[in-house]
Amino acid sequence: MKADMVAMGLPADRIRVHHTGVDQDRFHPVDRAAAKGALGVAGPLVVSVGALIPRKGHDIVIDAVAALPGVTLLIAGQGPARATLEAQIARLGIANRVRLLGAVPHAEIPKLIAAADVSALASESEGLANAWVESLACGTPIVITDAGGAHDVVTSPEAGRVTIGDPLAFAAAIGALLADPPAPETTRATVTSFTWEANTTALYEHLATLAAEHRI
Predict the structure, then answer these.
(1) Model confidence over 156-184: pLDDT tens digits?
(2) N or C: which end of the chain has fewer CB within 10 A?
(3) Cα(110)–Cα(199) distance, integer angstroms
(4) Is the distance from CB of 85 to CB of 60 less than 8 angstroms?
(5) 182: CB partners within 8 A, 6+ apart
(6) C-alpha to C-alpha distances, 198 to 87, 131, 164, 185, nearest whole angstrom
(7) What are the backbone dihedrals phi and psi of residue 186, each rounded to the nearest 5 degrees, phi first?
């Protein structure tokens, strides 16, 4: 968003990036094997959380998982692209390992993400998606496109991979993380600064500074 604003002619030195926070008491690593078992999954698991709309690129992730034998994909979200995605899954013959979960209650999202080995979202555009930060807080590395603030969250290999929105590229990135997974606590450590406390402090300091500068 800052880059877009600068491109419109706004001075960069007057724009402050304010990152989102995540409830790190709710989003945290769990016993992954047990969490998979509760979902009826055995073997590698990829999750994707986002509305079923073309911009989210679920079709790319489905094609990528189709190229990874034995990998299960669970997609949480609802939207107008559901029928198209269901047809794609049927055409590829992977209904036994790709499930559209529909709308998942927010209280259940942490357990879903923490159960996964990788979280993947091939968005055409994003700001700084909450799903990215929530996944990393759960110790689950992400594979995402170079959209919005992707490089603000994927700051090391332990956080995951940023790649192009192409099924083969996504398959390669997911496969690399499955073959050499980072420790969940190491992945979580990449977003320890993304807390609501830090969010509140930064916003308060910014607004207090503005108030002090314009005090009559």
Answers:
(1) 999 999 999 999 999 999 999 999 999 99
(2) C
(3) 20
(4) no
(5) 141, 157, 158
(6) 44, 18, 31, 20
(7) -70, -40
